[in-house]
Design goal:
The complex is a heterodimer. By secondary structure, chain A is mostly helical. Chain A has a domain at about 35-100 and about 115-175. In chain A, about 75% of the residues lie in helices and about 0% in strands. Chain A has 8 helices and no strands. Chain A has helices at about 10-25, 35-45, 50-65, 65-90, 100-115, 120-140, 150-170, 175-204. The radius of gyration of chain A is 17 Å and the shape is globular. Chain B is mainly α. Chain B has one domain (about 40-200). Helix content of chain B is about 80%, strand content about 0%. Chain B has 8 helices and no strands. Chain B has helices spanning about 1-20, 35-45, 50-65, 70-90, 95-115, 120-140, 150-170, 175-200. In chain B, helix 3 (about 50-65) runs antiparallel to helix 8 (about 175-200) and helix 4 (about 70-90) packs antiparallel against helix 7. Classes of the chains: A mainly alpha, B mainly alpha.
Amino acid sequence: MNRKRRSRMPLYAFVAFVGAMAAIPANAHLNATGMGPLYDGLMHFLLSPEDFIPVLALSLLAGLRGAAYGRRALFVIPVAWLAGGLVGLSAIAAAPHPFVAAAWFLLLGAMLAADANISLRLTTGLAALLGLYHGYLNGTGLGTSTTAAVALLGLVFGIFVLIALAAACVVRLRAHWARIAVRVAGSWIAASGLLMLGWAIRTR
Amino acid sequence: MMRNRQQILARWLGVLIIVSLWSQNAFAHPQKAEAVGFLTGFRHPISGLDHVLAMVAVGLWGAQLGSPAIWLLPVAFPMVMAFGGMLGLMGVPLPGAEYGIALSAIMLGAAVLFEIRPPLTIAAILVGFFAIFHGHAHGTELPPGQSALLYSMGFVIATGCLHAVGIGIGTVHRWGWGQKVLRAAGGLVTVGGFFFLWKAAA
């Protein structure tokens, strides 16, 4: 019997993805974990789709391009996020702009759906920009308390782990259909971005 | 070898069933507008049978056409539909959206029924044209006071799952009896489309 061994990784990844998506709304009102500011920051990231989804999209795209891209995103995004957040902590509160949030969804989702053949330099630039912008917004949102910096640190840990898992899962995908499934995720993200844009225009 | 593929297929169907049953208890206590936003968005595409019929027909047709259409349709469709939804949210009027949706079920069902195989671009343009109507109808119906992001995500994910259901059903196309079943399903979708056209006109 010539049984070909197939990797079950895509299956697990898919189930984990759906599980993660399904769990988001249920815990949306969990602000204090009761385990200190570090975990509060981590949970804040995991439960904020406007932060979580662009990072996921960029790490999936980096994973599609290869291990070198994934490694670059893995280290650039958290560092930029931390830097942006530290600046944001000492700044006056800035309201997140709905147009920019929608634009991140659209840009990264469309690039992922198109399997864009971006250069390593462009990946670095996008990662740095994404980290700085969202980190700054997070920083201004965390308040002026002394524990805010610790929460920011926990948040950045969460980002690091997410990128590592998402990119690593995609890097090892070889099957055609599995890579397409990743691109479908990008298409969904871009579609959500389009709807957000329409909503932002309507409520302006 | 054949047996192995069937095992893989059975495993995938199992996963699909688990996943489609999964989300139920997660939403048991929606307290804030955010959770409600995701739930409303997710429920919206599933609540209208006309929309469900057309989305499943897209998946069926894709499965019938085979590669690359089976991959192109689910990647391209959500974005075109969201574009229609954006037009709806912006208040751009689209006359006869109900007719367009009913007509899309008729056309897509007929395409599956007669196993029409147009060139890929024509299939994509046809599906994309109808996708705008579907998106527009949803975009105008976002209830106020709910998280737009979570509503959008729920809405897009539900539509994608409907495609997946269509493609999943379409996997029976590999067997002789399955091809007949598929064509019969296309006929059913067409009949449903005529029913909704009649309702829209009445």
